[in-house]
Amino acid sequence: MNSRERVLRAFKVKEGQPDRIPIEFDLCRSLQDHFAAKLGIESVYTNNLFEDVTYRISGNEIRLAMGSEVVVVGASERESFVPERFDDGTWMNEYHMRMRQGDIYVEVSEYPLAGAKTKADIDAYEWPDPHDPSRYKDAERLIAKYKDDYFIIGDIEVTILSLGQQLVGMEKLLMDMALGEEYVPYLFEKCEAFQTQVGLELVRRGVDAIWVGDDFGSQQSLLFSPPMFRDLLKGHYARQVRTLKEAKPDLVMILHSDGAVKALLDDIKDIGFDVFNPVQPGVPGHSPREIKDEYGDKFAFWGAIDQQYLMPNGTDAELEADIKEKCETLGEGGGYMIAPAHIIQSDVSPERVEFFIEMCRKYGEY
C-alpha cells in the first residue's frame, strides 16, 4: 500500500482500513535546512502570502524522504513581488501587513485595516490577485511529480476569520464582531471570496483536498459564542465548501482550528468538512477517547500530538506514551493521520523529530 492509498483510507475516502496510520509533519526553517543538509536534498521554499503557511507548503521533498506521507501545496507570492524591508528588521508582505520575527513565530506588527469602520474602508483595500499564474508554479510542479504516489493537499489556511484578524487586529476584530460593526460581515465576505478563488486555482491543478485554517478557540474555550459563529461565520464557510465541492465533487475538505472548539464540531460537520485538524491536545473536550467516541463517525482526525510541551520539553518516555495513546485511540478502526498539532518549531531538536517519526511507525501498525 503506497502513501496515497494509505491516506485515502485514513481519511475515509476509500473503504477499508489502511495497513498503518499515515504520518505527517511540517518543519520550521531551521529544521528544514538541517534535514536538507543531512539528506543532501535542496531546501526549497515556496513563500506564501502569509509567512506561517510557507512552512506548510515548503520542503515537501525533504519531509517525504523523512517519512511524511502527504504533499502540501499552496499559492506563493506573485513572481514579481519584492517585499519592502525596513531598518528595524520588519518587512511588508503582499497583504500589506508589516511583519516581524517573534521568538518562534512571525507576527504582524502593523495591520493594514486597523482603522476600518465601514464597508467603504474594506472596498479601499487592494487585494492580491488570486489568479496570477506565477503563484502556482511550485504547486503544478509538485502535483505533476507526486500525484500518483501521494495524497495532495491544497492549503488555503489563514482563510476567513484568521485572515480578517491579521488584516484588522485580533482585539479590534473581536470587539467589532461583538458590537455589530457594519464592516465585519463584509470583510469576512471578501476574505471568503479571495481564498475561495485560491482554492479553485488549486483544485483546477489537481489537488485531492483543500485545507482551510482558522482558529476559533483559545486554550480554554471558544473565542466567541456558538450563536455568534453561526451568525457571522458559518455561512461563509458553508458557501466556500459548497463552491469548492461543486468544482470537484470528491474533494476532501479539511478544517484546521486550534483551541478548545468541541462546542462547534457539529456545526463544522454541518458545513461540510470531512477532516478535523489538529485536534489540539490538552484543551477541554479534546481527550482522545471523548473525541473518538463522539465524533469518530463524523470526521477523520489529523494531528493530536502536543508540540507545545511534549515535543520540545517532554521526556522520550512521555512522548512515546502520548504517541501510543493517540495511535490506539484516535487510530482505532482507522480515520486518523498522526501529526504534531502545528509546525514543529526550532525549540524541538532534530533528534526529537526523528524520535517522533520512529515512534509513529512503531505504534501505527494495524
Could you list some keywords that capture this structure?
4-stranded antiparallel β-sheet, about 375 residues, about 45% helix, alpha/beta, single chain, 16 helices
Write a short abstract of this structure:
The protein is an alpha/beta fold. The chain has helices spanning 3-10, 29-39, 51-57, 60-66, 119-123, 137-146, 161-168, 170-179, 183-204, 226-232, 234-247, 265-271, 288-295, 310-313, 316-329, 350-363, and strands at 70-74, 84-85, 91-92, 98-101, 106-110, 151-155, 209-213, 252-256, 275-277, 300-305, 336-340. It has a seven-stranded parallel β-sheet. It has a four-stranded antiparallel β-sheet with strand order 2-3-4-5, with no helix packed on it.
Task: Compute the number of helices.
Answer: 16
CATH topology assignment: TIM Barrel
Spatially, the strands of the biggest sheet line up as: 1-6-7-8-9-10-11
How would a crystallographer describe the biggest sheet?
A: 7 strands, parallel
Structural class: alpha/beta
State the helical fraction. Answer: 40-55%
Q: What value does the average pLDDT take?
A: 97
| Uncertain runs | none
Number of strands: 11
**Distance between the ends:** 13 Å
Overall morphology: globular
Number of domain modules: 1
CATH class: Alpha Beta
Rg on CA atoms, Å:
20 Å
CATH-level-2 architecture: Alpha-Beta Barrel
